[in-house]
Write a sequence for this structure.
């Protein structure tokens, strides 16, 4: 059985998720697990897809970056797939780990992808430092702090931390920080 996995980082990327699902189905995926979460967060649907794998199955993704956030993460996923005697297929690379060459290429390409990401982050940090020294970079605007008054009002009205976070579009940890801080932010 071919099992597809599609992921976008944000809920704003609906078209990207739909395109992945379409491509996976076109390539023969019989079941597709999909989610809209950052690769840094918990990926429940990926866990379900890996749990669903059986001997002889194939886990298929459209792109490597939809599956793993680092070479370590990639290798952990590949180990899980292989422990179930299944294989991994990445469509845009025409890569299939059901053979030795595919497994070798996956390791090499995964390392190159991680290297590229590290270089990009290094350039980003350099650009931020340069902009800061020129007084042009102020950083991200603190969205949760601007809503501190609303957070306190909603909590006082009896809403839970989770409900307050959802209502205001901020994280629960931000609600907790505001709750714990002095009332005169």
């Amino acid at each position: 059985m071919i099992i597809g996995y599609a992921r976008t980082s944000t809920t704003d990327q609906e078209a990207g998720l739909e395109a992945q699902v379409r491509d996976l189905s076109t390539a023969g995926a019989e079941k597709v697990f999909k989610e809209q979460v950052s690769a840094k967060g918990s990926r429940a649907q990926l866990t379900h897809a890996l749990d669903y794998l059986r001997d002889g199955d194939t886990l298929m993704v459209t792109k490597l970056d939809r599956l793993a956030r680092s070479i370590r993460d990639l290798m952990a996923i590949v180990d899980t797939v292989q422990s179930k005697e299944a294989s991994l297929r990445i469509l845009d690379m025409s890569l299939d780990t059901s053979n030795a060459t595919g497994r070798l290429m996956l390791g090499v390409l995964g390392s190159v992808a991680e290297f590229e990401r590290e270089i990009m982050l290094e350039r980003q940090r350099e650009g931020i430092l340069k902009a800061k020294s020129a007084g042009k970079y102020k950083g991200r605007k603190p969205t949760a702090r601007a809503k501190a008054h609303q957070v306190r009002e909603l909590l006082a009205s009896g809403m839970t931390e989770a409900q307050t976070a959802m209502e205001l579009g901020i994280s629960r940890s931000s609600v907790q920080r505001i709750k714990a801080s002095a009332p005169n932010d």
